[in-house]
Amino acid sequence: MSINKFFAAAITALVLFSFSSCEKDEPARPTIAAIAVTNADFSQLEAAAVQGGVAVTLSNPNPNDLTSDFTVFAPNNAAFGRLGLVAEGDFAVLNKSFLTNTLLYHVSNGNLPGAEVGEGMVSGSLLGPDRRFINRDGDLYINGSQILATDVQAENGTVHVIDKVLLATGVDIVQSAIALASSEVFRTPELTFLVEAVVYAELAGALTAAEGSPSFTVFAPSDAAFRQLGEDLGVSLEQPEDIRKLPKETVAAVLLNHVIADGGKFTSEMNQGTITPLGESPLSVGAFNNGVLTVQGNNNSQVANMLIPDVQTVNGVVHMIDRVLLP
């Protein structure tokens, strides 16, 4: 496992220096919240914790664990930047409840040191859904986020640094899309065309979690992707209901081209090559690069890029993309 030990040491040294007491033999450790406050590379995490209402929780001992500790997988500023969240005010685009749940998904009870994390292990979260650990080419990932540094010690637990924000909905694929479309995540709705298309094509049942049902990897085209599809086809797709201008069979075939019955894979588990979706028209997956991959349909002239990768649902993983994949 290749972990940036120098980065971890530098963070620890900065934190301990900033909070050391006059008694040099017994430096005071900061709390997890204080680490975010004092380290410039966690300024967005600090802003998120304040706006999401978890800063006080991470400033105190954990009342729900015998060790009184938390373990936090902490996204750095670059991780938030991947989602377009580069300034404190940018969090206004998110509903507070979603922001709070997202932060809780990064936290677990007790201490989980880096030495005890490895391929195939899972870790619970305060939100509820588990996170899983993947070893890819010697680097360790939690879901689709690379662990950059481990074991930054705090008074109330341990911090590990990651390069992407962890996202989980706690509901199935269909309900996750509906949440995005109904402004429960972003204040401006997203995936409204996709939800309309799924309902129109009568595919909601197939993507709803049920006992014994499979889990999927889903490439979810953004609203802008559907509008671009309309331009490409010479059909006006300005509003979600405009999807119904297209034949139902065509819409169903296109949607099935975005769903792979593979158990649900994060980017860290996907490889360059060809995969076969439910629609059976092969998709071409590009090389894993900086935590994302491209994907291209058989009749696409351009690749689709991942806008928001690695969203965990209860029956799979969703990757929002910027282009509709044509069979």
Indicate the mean pLDDT. Answer: 91
The CATH homology group name of the largest domain: FAS1 domain
Query: Which CATH first-tier class of the largest domain would you pick?
Result: Mainly Beta
Total number of helical segments?
A: 9
Secondary-structure element order, N to C: HHHEHHEEEEEEEHHEHHEEEEEE
N-to-C terminal Cα separation, in Å? Answer: 39 Å
Q: Proportion of β residues?
A: 15-25%
Helix content: 25-40%
Q: Strand order within the widest sheet?
A: 2-1-7-6-5-4-3
Return the domain count. 2
**Structural Rg:** 21 Å
Instruction: From the 3D structure, determine the CATH topology of the largest domain.
Output: FAS1 domain
CATH architecture assignment of the largest domain:
Roll
Largest sheet: 7 strands, mixed
Number of strands: 15
Anisotropy-based shape: elongated
Walkthrough of the structure:
- By secondary structure, the protein is an alpha+beta fold.
- It folds into two domains: 5-165, FAS1 domain (Roll); 173-321, FAS1 domain, CATH 2.30.180.10.
- It is 25% helix and 21% strand.
- It is built from nine helices and 15 strands.
- The chain has helices at 5-19, 32-38, 43-51, 77-81, 96-104, 173-181, 192-200, 223-233, 248-256; strands at residues 70-75, 107-109, 122-123, 131-136, 139-142, 145-154, 157-162, 167-168, 216-221, 259-260, 273-275, 283-285, 295-296, 306-313, 316-321.
- It starts with a helix and ends in a 6-residue tail after the last strand.
